[in-house]
Amino acid sequence: MKKQNKFAEKLTLELIEQEIKKQNYSKEKQEELKKMVKESFEKSNQPLTESKESIKRKFENSFYVAKGREYTSAMSLMETQQHAEIFKEVLFEKLNNGELKVYFDDSLVDDGSIFFAYKNNNKLIFEILYNDEKTNKFEIDFDFLTFTYPKEKKMSLDEQSCLLKKILKYNETDDIFEISKRMINKYNNPDKKVIKQRRKEIFTGFFWSYGILIVAFLNLCISSSICLNIDGLKDYGPYIIFPSFGLPLLIMGIDYILACVFKWKHILLVEQSVSHAKMDPDRASWSNFESKDIIIAGVVFVVFGVLLILFPLLNFLK
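The structure corresponding to this sequence follows.
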């Protein structure tokens, strides 16, 4: 267990380091964030030293108002992961449905971090955000916001749109959030035609990533079943089974190659899927597209497809 925790700590620190490099944080802030992560891991496995009710009361009493903003000293109370879960529970009980709350963390100077909490349909989003030192604002990426309490659940497009409106309204009184134009165009009053087009593009990307392979295996199962159960077709099994499996692979390979040549958008979503990223048409860009791997995959599928189709014929000619 200790080895697992050490590995998890090392991995998390590496991810934190990559993220803070993107944000161009100062060395002082980088060290501060790394220290917080290390301390969190050191304390994460320690048992609670007091009752849950006592911890809840401390969190409930940690909120206060100063300089026209709401603050909390909750960070100094979070000694373990269990404390964090209890804090989520306190926020869940404190917020009304549809309510957005921003609590500034008083453990960092210059209001450098906030607790971002949003409750909707009895689900809670809870994030700790750090401001960009250049803009002094907190950036929110709606594509990765997820409800985390009482259980993890992705946000719907309508929920994301509703939250965006609340954040924009919050910015009218305290302009602290940095939201890209892409996010605003995507989630602020999304047009039904745009939503329909996005769903169509995602479906097409999913089909050419997984659906065509499912078709190939269904063909294999159905053709095998037919050949085994119909006496007159048993001798022709190879001539039916192999081509029925190879044809979808051939079509898939040709599509991959042509999509790279003629720049069909669904191939960008296929690449996102292959890279284990979320399929998102708005993030699909030819400038970041690496066609080499997709073309190689296409050639492999074409070769296997042709061999499976020709194998029975070559066998017959012998």
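The first strand starts at residue 63 and ends at 66.
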